[in-house]
Amino acid sequence: MGTTLSGTKRILAAALLATSALAGGAFAADKTPITADGLVEHIKVLASDAFEGRKPGTAGEEKTVAYIAEEFRKLGLKPAGDNGTYFQDVPMVEITNRPDGPMTVTGKDGAKSYEYFTQTMIWSRRRTDRPAVKDSEVVFVGYGITEPQQDWDDYAGIDVRGKTVVMLVNDPGFATGDPKLFDGVAMTYHGRWTYKYENAAKHGAAAVLIVHETRPAGYPWGVVANSHSVPRLDLMPPDGGQGRAMIEGWVQLDVAKEMFAAAGLNFDELKDRASDRGFKAVPMGIKVSMALNNSFRDLKSRNVAAVLPGASKPDEVVMYTAHWDHLGRGNAVKGDDIYNGAVDNATGTAGLLELAEAFAKAPTKPARSVAFVAFTAEEQGLLGSEHYALNPLFPVAKTVGGYNMDGLNYLGPTRDLIMIGAGKSEMDEPVLAWAKANGKTITPEVFPERGIYYRSDHFNLAKVGVPMLYTKAGVDSVAHGAEWGKAKADEFTRTDYHQPSDEWKEGMTMEGGAEEVRMLYELGRDLADSTKWPAWKPGSEFKPIREKSLSAAR
User: Fold this and answer.
1) What is the DSSP letter of 457?
2) pTM metric for this prediction
3) Terminal CA-to-CA distance of the chain, rounded, Å?
4) Distance CA 91, CA 525 (A)
5) 3-class DSSP string for 210-273
6) What pLDDT is stored for residue 236 in this prediction?
7) Within 10 Å of residue 477's Cβ, how many Cβ atoms?
8) Secondary element (H or E) of residue 63
């Protein structure tokens, strides 16, 4: 988008300013407005077939990062990447996992095989040409969690070194609904598959299989299959991934039940027992064999970063983030093999560019610097933000706080707003004030079992102590009501999430998304003009990290 507003955008801008003033909002007349038209312009470019699904390491990446950098340049924002550029290099390895036959499970009554993609999905994050386990003993380890603060250890009293562990997705609080057990129905980081694989590796497991169930996982099997059937990227550690299990993966629920039956065990009974404190892991008396043929390609992807230097406190930084990537080309669905990622996350990237324009064109500069960072490889496991957190372009102790966008509202304005991970930090309070001033209600997370706070890039910044806000549009549609909104959100997860059908379609509107982005502008502008340093709240897992970081800086 150019540096001048179109006639349509000017008209919308004036209307939005008037509407905001009538609503009693904080969007003042001296602030550049953000419009639905501006968002749509960017989304249609980024989610077009020409960008081939924006997968890192492809021609789609080249087009995407060039587009974002050029938009930053046209706005006059300063490069904030490596060597005076808008780019931060992110070294990666692309791993292509090809199954070497089916997964075979051997019990007392013989062996049975299970097919890759339809029944099981396996991969390896080791730099090994042929990762395999053969006749590996299988152990059921419940939820696969070790958490002293919860007095919980699914590995207590069992040696799983060299064995295959099978576990449930999510965490015990989801199964019981007990708010005192982990976070009740809301997934904690211990319920995420990333944690489970890491924890199993720490205990020496050779292979890790998670039982897939749609509701506790937060997405259907198709998401698992499509995400892992294409070449995957990773930040390869110096040891070549030797600290990981040899094989990681998922199995369908019916496969898991057959495995337990082959062991003379009842899956449903053991699943119920696994949510009891003091559960003991169960050696299953069966063996599993599976193998892959791997190939590797080293590449460099890029985060894209720009900054508007602050007028009086340029060393203090307020951040806005979004991931630019999606899945690229993959398995064709109804003849379409381009995973365009319109909602996820061309919308968030468009929001980042609209925010950059709003700050760049504001009549006055904010006191603090404002940074805009588009991360790579979020879809590969939050890799771009992980690299940034380990190699920050702005010192962590000087980063005041941040706002992440991942999937903006494309269904129209809502009466409510959802704060993901509410109660974790003082970043919440300004949102509550904004909602009250603008006639919005705050709705609890609609699907807390999905662990959304741990599934986007803000999480890696939070892990190094930076207070991060992550909001989502509510479900109470102004036009259609709450039941319609919730049904539409669920429908997207079931039918479009990580599918080629996540495209820009007729009937989509960014009026609600523009409202989200304007809110983030107001919140960020206020923080950038203040002397506030939002803190994590007592009990947050990130509070000690932040305090240590700030203490060291002082």
Assistant:
1) T
2) 0.81
3) 42
4) 33
5) EEECHHHHCCCHHHHHHHHCCCEEECCCCCCCCCCCCEEEEEEHHHHHHHHHHCCCCHHHHHHH
6) 86
7) 22
8) helix 59-74
Question: Does the N-terminal peptide bond of residue 345 adopt cis geometry, omega within 30 degrees of 0?
Answer: yes
Nearest CA to 455 out of 385, 391, 395 is that of 385
Q: Buried b / exposed e across 315-328, counting CB within 10 Å, b at 16+?
A: ebbbbbbbbbbbbb
Spatial distance between the Cα atoms of 71 and 361, rounded to a whole number of angstroms: 13
Task: Retrieve residue 84's tokens.
Answer: 């005076």
Q: What is the structure's pLDDT at 447?
A: 77
- Name the DSSP class of 343: I
Residue 360 CB coordination number (10 Å): 19
E strands, 100-228, are: 103-107, 110-114, 120-123, 132-140, 146-147, 152-153, 164-168, 207-212
Residue 26's pLDDT is 39
Side-chain half-sphere exposure of 175, counting CA atoms within 13 A: 19
- pLDDT, mean of each 10-residue run, the chain (554 residues): 34 34 35 85 98 96 98 98 97 94 96 96 95 98 94 97 98 93 88 94 98 92 86 88 96 98 98 96 98 95 98 98 96 94 97 98 97 96 96 98 97 94 93 95 84 92 96 93 92 92 94 96 98 92 92 85
Give the C-alpha distances (Å, rounded to integers) separating 200 from 152, 162, 401.
15, 11, 33
Dihedral sign, CA of 520, 521, 525, 528? positive
